[in-house]
Write a structure and sequence with these properties.
Distance between the termini: 89 Å
Number of helices: 30
Number of domains: 3
Bound molecules: zinc ion
Protein name: histone deacetylase
InterPro entries: Arb2-like_domain, HDACs, His_deacetylse_dom, His_deacetylse_dom_sf, Ureohydrolase_dom_sf
Number of strands: 20
Family: Belongs to the histone deacetylase family. HD type 2 subfamily.
CATH class of the largest domain: Alpha Beta
CATH architecture of the largest domain: 3-Layer(aba) Sandwich
Radius of gyration: 35 Å
Shape: elongated
Strand content: 5-15%
CATH superfamily of the largest domain: Histone deacetylase domain
Keywords: Chromatin regulator, Hydrolase, Nucleus, Repressor, Transcription, Transcription regulation
Organism: Rhodotorula taiwanensis
């Protein structure tokens, strides 16, 4: 049958047609097959409230399905016989989803939502269900390219149903019945000379029938998923003049076979069965449903079918070339609905069912040509993109396509701290499995307050590049508006203009085949404004001009960077994945950048400051930190000794566009440690111990650098330095100076070496936005530390705010100072900006005569001639007590001059002479 010959659009409900059907049947519509359209069976009478027990009902349903499977394709579900006695209130001995034990439900409620209806006392954390295989639904068996025969509900029926326990609905402000609306047909629009396919929308006031049960309604705290959500959007489009420029696609109920493309038969039966329960019975099940974050009334199942069927009809109209794109104003939403589970206000997963439906109905079949649309164009529906910008992760959608490589699921959502649905399924590492690995892309924002700049940044950096690489044939947007400004649940700040721009970007894909389907969004005004902005874009109105957005927040850019790094394994557009060791070895020699930087530092600090590289006596430490401990020649003699422990500045990397390899020519090292050394060694005559905590854990496996530092090893190094160098020195005044990772090492010394209080005069810590290390009360040195410390935190550090609220700084953090810098997130920037404060602080702690001592002219010119070997050899006295180690001396004797100016101190073989293992010496 030609799709064009079946009128799917109406200007208004045909009164004659409406009259023909006078009952609202909750069961499936008649099914039409491709091969032989069957005549519609007689309407099924609505089952009265005197509903049978469910056990009876489900067994009959099951029997009916067995029968239907073997019967003619034009089967439909039989009515449920009303044989049992009506259920008495309080009599319930079974619950509506009979396969489940309500006490053992592994699901949670909207625990983070500040609403009565959503805060569920019995909520349990979301756990990811096991593997699921959907039933094998085939085209022709209850599933057809052609729409099922339409059935309409007239005003009288709607009102009759409204009185079925929901009489308030009839008086709801803003309820507009569909037959009051004048919309255009395709032909009308063609006459207007639109020049392109029109846009469509679908809406039915019947979907407002799904509402909380009357006795559970609290007018002071309405349930967030309220009927006014869709009436509000519809009225906004209507009053804004958009509906009159669009084609209205008729909503109809989804069929069992359609829903079963994603959901199990049991799930279909369970949801359907709720439509045969009395209000009194469903009230007794209220708590059960709240554990699933659901409410159910006798019309919920009907509305869930309408919601899903509406989106299917929109998809059909787009695929058939009747409309170019569309917006489905539907509820209940769908993206939380798992294949076997209704949850999170969702019953059937509209987006998932539609994606699967498109592939099943229009996908290529072996040996057959592609089907053609009403314009004669081939219909290609091989790959579908589902973009989910609802503020919640669409767990149900991702799970439906967990191992499907033809349906790409991209979700931007709030994640962490138990935000619904909780668990780790929406984490960035959750990326699908099997052949579908990489075809789930999660962009989990860890904070509230993300706005247009953050969302558009994620779109530009991740969504659009991956979408272009995937090249979908149609894009479905799970268009929840709970990330909109004003939504109490999402607490995000996306504006209507922001949604418009995201819609605009997506409409560039798939030749413009774009379908937005409403999901969440609980501020009735925000969702209406946001949906209106999106619809204006799809009908082709001009985009709103955005004000300058500034830059995305640090939190968002971090998330985006993490997602890109992770997804680079799967998507070329995310940059080349870090290659494996084996691949790198094929290409040449592997040398880690950290080794190169360490060698550079050793060379540079020797030439500039005369610092010597010290080998560590412990083999474990030497392996971990070789070339990372340097000392000045007067380390044992200086009156003032600076122990400077830091990480190695920051790298300003530039990337080559094509491969995302680091562009070495434009990459710079920002190393602020020299500023500290200038002060210590040129302004004063401090002895210096320089410990560089450049992480030695760099790995080239898959996900880049291992973020976990070996803190135990760093502590061992710090104590080693204290015991073996500071402990042996004659210094009367010691300054501990930590930057970045070095701050923790500094605290390790204070915690474990009580003698610090004798000689340490100043403890300086410079941190970024991470929490400073704490000193517990048991150490007994808190008062001393408070006196002698200067903890420089960026002015934006949360601790300042906490302290203001608490009225004081906590003792465990020491003497906290609010520092400001241009880029406060980086300790290097802060260090540069804070040096005047550091100098001022030290001047109050170290006696003036010790400060006034100036370095001898010769002491800092050790390597200034640039020839490390000849300048250094024999010219310096060896610091006494530095670890004996023959290797360097032996290497020098053997003339091994690979690393220029890498210096080793040895006291064993050379009577205290410094042995230079340098190039000039070879
Ligand atoms: Zn949501």
């Amino acid at each position: 049958m030609d799709g064009a010959s079946q009128p799917i659009f109406t200007q208004a409900i045909d009164p004659a047609e409406s009259q023909t059907e006078t009952t609202r049947s909750p069961v499936a519509a008649p099914v039409v097959t491709v091969a032989a359209p069957a005549a519609a069976p007689p309407p099924v009478p609505f089952v009265p409230e005197t509903t049978p027990g469910l056990a009876n009902a489900t067994s009959q349903l099951a029997a009916a399905h067995i029968q239907a499977d073997g019967a003619a394709p034009a089967s439909s579900e039989p009515p449920i016989a009303s044989s049992s006695a009506p259920l008495e209130p309080g009599q319930a001995v079974f619950h509506p989803f009979p396969e489940q034990d309500p006490a053992g439900l592994p699901l949670t409620g909207f625990a983070s939502i500040p609403s009565r209806a959503a805060v569920l006392p019995n909520a349990q954390p979301y756990t990811r269900p096991g593997r699921y295989s959907p039933p094998q639904v085939q085209l022709g068996k209850g599933l057809s390219r052609d729409p099922p025969q339409r059935r309409f509900v007239n005003d009288h029926e709607l009102k009759a149903s409204l009185t079925n326990g929901n009489s308030e609905l009839a008086r709801l402000p803003g309820v507009v019945h569909e037959d009051e609306v004048k919309t255009l047909s395709v032909d009308d629009l063609k006459k207007m000379g639109l020049g392109r396919l029109p846009s469509g929308f679908c809406y039915s006031a019947r979907m407002t029938l799904h509402a909380p049960l009357p006795r559970t309604v609290d007018s002071n705290d309405p349930h967030p998923e309220q009927p006014a959500r869709i009436t509000g959007i519809f009225n906004k489009l209507l009053n804004g003049g958009l509906t009159s420029r669009m084609v209205r696609v008729q909503v109809r109920e989804a069929l069992r076979e359609e829903v079963m493309l994603v959901h199990s038969e049991g799930h279909w039966d369970r949801v359907r069965a709720t439509g045969f329960q009395t209000i009194e019975y469903l009230e007794t099940c209220k708590e059960f449903f709240e554990r699933l974050s659901l409410y159910v009334n006798p019309d919920s199942a009907f509305c869930a079918r309408l919601s899903c069927g509406g989106v299917i009809e929109m998809a059909r109209a787009v695929a058939e070339g009747q409309i170019r794109n569309g917006f489905a104003i539907v509820r209940p939403p769908g993206h939380h609905a798992e294949p076997e589970e209704a949850m999170g206000f969702c019953f059937f997963n509209n987006a998932a069912v539609v994606a699967k439906w498109l592939r099943t109905v229009y996908g290529a079949r072996p040996g057959q040509p592609l089907q053609r649309d009403v314009n004669g164009k081939e219909i290609k529906m091989e790959r579908i993109l589902i973009l989910d910008w609802d503020v919640h992760h669409g767990n149900g959608t991702q799970r439906a396509f967990e191992d499907d490589k033809d349906i790409l699921y991209i979700s931007l959502h709030r994640h962490g701290n138990g935000f619904y649905p909780g668990g780790d399924y929406g984490a960035l590492e959750s990326a699908g499995s099997g052949p579908g690995r990489g075809f789930s892309v999660n962009i989990p924002f860890m904070n509230e307050g993300m706005g247009d700049a953050d969302y558009l940044y994620a779109f530009q950096q991740i969504v659009m590049p991956i979408a272009y690489e995937f090249a979908p044939d149609l894009v479905i947007v799970s268009a929840g508006y709970d990330a909109a400004k004003g939504d109490e649940l999402g607490k995000m700040l996306v504006s209507p203009d922001g949604y418009a721009h995201m819609t605009h970007m997506l409409s560039a894909l798939a030749g413009g085949k774009l379908l937005l389907a409403l999901e969440g969004g609980y501020n009735v005004n925000s969702i209406a404004e946001s949906a209106y902005a999106c619809v204006k874009v799809i009908v082709g109105d001009e985009l709103p001009a955005m004000p300058s957005l500034g830059s995305a927040s640090l939190a968002a850019t971090n998330t985006v960077a993490d997602v890109k790094r992770f997804q680079a394994q799967h998507w070329k557009s995310m940059g080349c994945a870090v290659e494996s060791d084996a691949e790198l070895t094929k290409a040449g020699k592997i040398e880690s950048l950290s080794d190169i930087l360490k060698a550079h530092r050793v060379y540079h600090l020797f030439h500039e400051y005369g610092l010597f590289n010290v080998e560590l006596s412990s083999p474990g430490l030497e392996e971990a930190f070789h070339d990372q401990l340097l000392v000045s020649e007067d380390v044992y003699d200086a009156e003032v000794l600076l122990v400077f422990m830091h990480d190695l500045g920051s790298m300003k990397a530039a990337y080559t566009a094509a491969t995302l390899d680091t562009d070495l020519e434009r990459t710079q090292l920002l190393d602020t440690s020299c500023e500290v050394l200038d002060w210590a060694m040129e302004d004063h005559a401090f002895g210096v111990i320089d410990v560089n905590f450049l992480s030695h854990l760099a790995t080239v496996k898959g996900q880049g650098v291992d973020p976990s530092r070996d803190r135990a090893k760093e502590k061992e190094l710090a104590l080693h330095v204290w015991d073996n160098i500071v402990g042996m020195s004659a210094a009367q005044h010691v300054i501990l100076f930590g930057s970045g990772a070095g701050c923790h090492a500094l605290m390790d010394i204070i915690r474990n070496r009580p003698a610090v209080t004798d000689r340490v005069r100043a403890c300086i810590s410079i941190l970024g936005l991470e929490p400073p290390p704490e000193l517990d009360a048991a150490s007994g040195v808190r008062p001393w530390y408070k006196q002698q410390s200067l903890v420089l935190l960026p002015s934006t550090h949360p601790l300042h705010e906490d302290a203001r609220r608490a009225g004081k700084h906590q003792k465990k953090f020491g003497n906290i100072y609010r520092a400001t810098a241009e880029d406060e997130s980086r300790p290097t920037h802060l260090l540069h900006a804070s040096m005047p404060k550091v100098k001022e602080f030290v001047a109050t702690k170290i006696p003036q005569d010790a400060l006034d001592r100036r370095p001898a002219a010769s002491s800092t010119s050790a390597g200034s001639e640039g020839d490390a070997g000849s300048a250094g050899e024999g010219a310096k006295p060896a610091p006494v007590g530095v670890e004996a180690n023959g290797t360097a001396a032996e290497a020098a004797a053997a003339g091994d001059g690979v690393a220029p100016a890498v210096t080793a101190l040895s006291t064993s073989d050379n009577g205290g002479d410094v042995v230079m293992n340098g190039a000039g010496n070879a």
